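Why do we bother with holo predictions? Because pocket geometry can differ from the apo form. Keep that in mind while you read this record for S-adenosylmethionine.
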Amino acid sequence: MTQAQKRGIVNLRSKYACDLETIKDIGSLFPTPGPLALEIGFGNSDNLISSAAARPNTNYIGCEVHPPGVAQALIAIEDCGLTNVKIFYRDVHDLVMGLGDLSLDSVDIFFPDPWPKKKHIKRRLVQSKFLEILALKLKRNGIFRFSTDNLAYALDVLELTRHNKCWRNLAGERLWSPRPTQRVITRFEEKARKAQSEIFEISMCCLI
Ligand SMILES: C[S@@+](CC[C@H](N)C(=O)[O-])C[C@H]1O[C@@H](n2cnc3c(N)ncnc32)[C@H](O)[C@@H]1O
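The structure, written out:
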């Protein structure tokens, strides 16, 4: 991390980060009530920050474990004067376990680590147990968006949600969705584009 990023974390964390205690009362985290959107693994935070700036009436939680990305997000929140975004700087499993049921309007996971080797597949973020928890935390008709350039991962997510009464594929069974128009091109999306990899988009509606 650069010195500026280290300073960003030290000076801004208490102002813009949330933790296991403060997420218990989500309403008190933001000055204005509004729909609550979660972006998991926001990387360099470009999409999180531009989403929060473009939609001031929506509240955002960004979750990330990579310190430089967290620092970049905290500095951007300060520079842009955003009051509708908070950072959870820990593993997302802790966040979702700590959040109240039916608290989220949307969950975005864009280009999660694909763990392509067979022996590493268990390390993938989106697994059946994780989808079960997300379904509890999302409101009814809440949206889960997932993007990857790893076909095997994308097919697994489609399959896990296909036989599941909690989810409806917005594109129709076994089908890919269009790219979410509101997403700015993320760092890993850019990499996939440069490599001319196909990108698979999944949009699910929570039914419970
Ligand atoms: C491949 S990067 C994608 C970053 C960004 N979404 C993009 O498209 O450029 C995956 C990100 O997920 C984060 N991540 C992985 N596991 C996580 C977890 N359990 N909780 C929170 N963030 C996680 C990583 O630190 C990394 O920044």
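The chain has a mean pLDDT of 97.
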